[in-house]
Amino acid sequence: MSNPNSTANNLPIDARTTTSRRRLPNFNWKGVKPIPFFISIFIGLLLRFAVPKPHSLTPKAWSLLSIFLTTISGLILSPLPVGAWAFTCLTLAVITKTLTFAAAFSAFTNEVIWLIVISFFFSKGFVKTGLGDRIAMLFVRWLGKSTLGLSYGLVLSEAVISPAMPSTTARAGGIFLPIIKSLAVGADSRPKDGSARKIGAYLIQSQNQSASNSSALFLTAAAQNMLCVKLADSIGVKIPNRWVTWLKASSIPALISLSATPFILYKIFPPEMKATPDAPAMAKRKLEQMGPVKRDEWLMVGTMLLTVALWISGEALGMTSVIAAMLGLSILLLLGVLDWEDCLSEMQAWDTLAWFGVLVGMATQLTALGVVPWMSKCVAKLLKSLSVNWFGAFCILQTAYFFIHYLFASQTAHVGALYSAFLGMHVASQVPGLLAALALGYNTNLFGALTHYSSGQAAVYYGAGYVELHDVFKLGIAMALINIVIWGLTGAAWWKVLGLY
């Protein structure tokens, strides 16, 4: 009989080696990232089985806290995309009977979450119709004769757009970064070379830092704002007439900070080019190319004005914010400004629905099972033992909430992980609930430019390559401290006038 291996044995050694290598299986792993996965799981298991359960909590509450900790660890370490990881952890909670199916998915019918989803569709309308670009170019044409004026034009245009476009990442990537890059290249300022500081780096940083205040100004200017409101409501802190109350409390400190930010950065991170005489001409050419305001743009303006008016007057009319948003979206669909394919293709909206629903559901159940009240009482007792009054507790807790964001790569993940617990600590320390809820919400926006990974828009702007990493960190902490001073001083005075404390 012939030896089946004779052919292979007669091959040269190099050929035999090549043949052997070809027979080895090719492990091209496409699933979960193993190291982040095991770390996230280990953290949850460590709490569940190695840390003694407090007597005041039930085994189910302790199990849910461990699963929640695993969820948050995964949001930070990213073993899977956010929505996929959140869904997997929710599945774990149901399989282990820590939560019933109804309790696990109860948050998916929450009004605030659907308001966030619909707001993403409004963002799609701004981009699709070109209305966002037109508004930005109008401000550039009016104010863009100098680099400082150009910055103010971009900042003000974002503030105008923000209440109807609740994603700072979408505003950054879809509207403002392309405009800034076009302006910078037109001035021979290019990333990652000696010309970056000419104009591009300043405009990038000014827009990035100012976006945090634009997001804090309006309730619907950022998705995390609406999540904060929902979580506050879930632990018993009611915010009356939400849209108006949020705007009244934020208006003075946010507008002052918005006005100061471009000028402060102009002094501490100055552009080499001070005058930009070509920018208004470029904006004029762009507007001429766009032509007159089109039908869909007028319809987008009219629909958003109606929707915002209903958000403002909704309480008097008996119409909730989400119903007003549903009406606005329905009008855009009926008039053909948006079609259903536009909504289906807005993946960020559906992804947000998935993982926001998981986080809100878990946070609500943690409160219902007594975990958040227990944590709040522990911290309140500690502060009381140190003889800290409610104002001192407010300052300590707000500062801790702000700077712990160095550990997070997402504002919404930060809110889901810590907002309820920190608000509970405020309330247990006798801090007025409405003041605590709003201040934590504003803080959630202000730390969005702390690092290059602290928010979606920060990552977008850093990715443009105009600003060195060490400058990102230096300017992040400098502007963070400046914002804390502005919001702390003007906010304290204004909130006293409003009767928040």
Automatic annotation (TrEMBL):
InterPro entries: CitT-rel, SLC13A/DASS
Keywords from the UniProt entry: Membrane, Plastid, Plastid inner membrane, Transmembrane, Transmembrane helix
Chief localisation class: plastid
GO CC, one annotated term: chloroplast inner membrane
Subcellular location: Plastid, Chloroplast inner membrane
Record-level Gene Ontology MF annotations: malate transmembrane transporter activity
UniProt topology in membrane: Multi-pass membrane protein
Protein family per UniProt: Belongs to the SLC13A/DASS transporter (TC 2.A.47) family. DIT1 subfamily.
Name of the protein described by the UniProt record: Dicarboxylate transporter, chloroplastic-like
Source organism of the structure: Olea europaea subsp. europaea
